[in-house]
Amino acid sequence: MEKFKDVVTMSQNKTLLSELQPGDLVEFPRGVYSHWGVYIGNELISHLAGEEDDGINAAMRPEYVFTICGVRFNKAKVCLENFWNIVEDCCARKNNQSDKKMQPLSREEILVNATSKLGEVGYSLIYSNCEHFAKWCRYGISKSDQVESVMTGLAVGFGAALTAGLVYAFAKYKGDSTTEKEDEESEQKKMQIS
């Protein structure tokens, strides 16, 4: 079964590579996240690649998850690499979906952007990752839908937890004040009986 999957994946990647046009964005799904690059032509991808294959495969080092303060760390650089060195065992896909929301630059501008930063070092998971780079190349706007989805999920989760905490605190306070009132009334009845 594994061999069949490898053959199918290889075939799909070959088909994709034959259909890619210079300036297309290429997404490399890695399970939890996707790696992104810009197709240059001749099987070359311009992408922000990490040290020790970080950002290329799922061997993401935990200390890089907390690069959220706008600081760019020297853990990745923009480079040109052969499609086959990046794709590994995933089914890559062309992903120009943001064309529906943003105007892509001309092919020439995209390629200039994709090659103008070669060798530039710096990375921030939240502000400057491989998807930010790829979308900046194509649209002139640094954007990561993956980061925005996670941040939205965190905000919704935080809001739900805060609401649940407030409801619990209110219910507990109301219950405590009701208990105090009942205790007070009971004490008054005892005094009247005596």
Automatic annotation (TrEMBL):
PROSITE patterns to which the protein is assigned, alphabetical: LRAT
Record keywords, A-Z: Hydrolase, Lipid metabolism, Membrane, Transferase, Transmembrane, Transmembrane helix
A Pfam cross-reference name: LRAT
Annotated GO CC locations: cytoplasm
UniProt keyword annotation of RNA-binding present: no
The UniProt record lists the keyword Nucleotide-binding: no
Every LRAT domain range: 25-146
Alphabetical list of SUPFAM superfamilies matching this protein: Cysteine proteinases
Gene Ontology biological-process entries: N-acylphosphatidylethanolamine metabolic process
Highest rank taxon of the organism: Eukaryota
GO-annotated molecular function: N-acyltransferase activity; phospholipase A1 activity; phospholipase A2 activity
Transmembrane domains' residue ranges: 150-171
Similarity-based family: Belongs to the H-rev107 family.
Designated name of the protein: HRAS-like suppressor 3
Organism encoding this protein: Elysia marginata
